[in-house]
Amino acid sequence: MKDKVNIIHPRTQIGKNTKIGMYSVIGYPENEGKHVEIGQDCKIGNHVTIYPGTKIMDNVSIKDFSCIEDNVRIGNNVFIDNNSYIGREAMIDDFTLILYEAKIYDGAKIGKRSRIGGFVAENTVIGDHVTIFGKLIHSFRDPTRWSGGEEPPTIDNFVVVGFNAVVIGAIKISHHVYIAAGAIVSKDVSPYSIVHGVNKIIPIKDWRGKMRKSIFWEWEG
Predict the structure, then answer these.
(1) Using alpha carbons only, what angle is made at residue 113 by residues 53 and 158, rounded to the nearest 5 degrees?
(2) How far apart are CA 55 and CA 7, in angstroms?
(3) Cα(194)–Cα(161) distance, rounded to whole angstroms?
(4) Model-level pTM greater than 0.90?
(5) How open is the CA angle 129-157-161, to the nearest 5 degrees?
(6) Which of 2, 53, 101, 198 could make an SS bond with 70 (beta carbons 3.0 to 4.6 A apart)?
(7) Chain segment 118-169, per-residue pLDDT in tens
(8) C-alpha–C-alpha distance, residues 172 and 153, integer Å
């Protein structure tokens, strides 16, 4: 039975021991001078689309129904879960997990050993050892413009953005910051802080809850 139907451009480079599932499209639509490179020991699931110019390193897993746009760079040992979207020219560093239905838009840069499970606006910069379960978005102060151009958030190393939290606009979240579930953040946050509610920023030394004793504050990778 010929039920394993893939469309793989002939210029696609596929490393040793890499497996590609059913009904995936790799290297199309054709773009002159660009091709897809997939390293060794990778696992590409079913119904995955990978556009031209994308380079995937070794031991990467991309699960079913995910879409990787053109000119993306994916490091070693990255895991991309089902139904995820990676926008063009995004960069994902080694050992990072892209969780179920994550949306990472054009030009975003994500560091090593991070876990991304939410929405990441275009050109956002995320450091190492970061967990995102909320949204990182532009401020969209001009509703007549949808062509981008606004500065995105910048997230330093060792940051947690909790479930349904929203980080808005061209702000910097410093290292060792814990943003609680449902928080809204629209201004810079200093290191070693907890954020809850709407821009309620509390230094960890002044926090009275259990989180003050967490090893998170001593985390250095």
Answers:
(1) 125
(2) 18
(3) 10
(4) yes
(5) 75
(6) 53
(7) 999 999 999 999 999 999 999 877 777 666 667 899 999 999 999 999 999 9
(8) 6
